[in-house]
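[Automated response] Your request has been received and processed.

Submitted sequence:
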Amino acid sequence: MPGRNAKRQKAVTSRRTPVTFAEDMAERGATGASLEDQDWFIEISNMNVVAFRRDYLGRIGAPEHSEYGDRCIVATKGGRKLRVYGAATTLADLRSWFEDGPRDKTAAEAAEDALETIEQR
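Generated structure:
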């Protein structure tokens, strides 16, 4: 998933540990043109990149058809409203992913997170 500008793009996983988008995606095992986990939804759809981190989103409207293609309105936690264009199925998947909420972590994932936190200190 990392692009040529990935070194400039920062994803903040915690306030103390900024990492590049490329590093974050590599840690998640992201390959190809899509990723869906409890934190990220990324998919290429109709020549658009639909990419959101769950903690950035406040609300996602239902997909609708416009003269420019299928779209939905996304409201961020900060109050911004964005028009997101993509295939209706991708937009419906984005909305379902958000509404279903994060899944509970497995014991192995929780242990890995705890180990990373300890190593950072």
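Summary generated for your ticket: The CA atoms of residues 8 and 20 lie 7 Å apart. The longest strand covers residues 69-76.
If you did not submit this request, please reply to this message.
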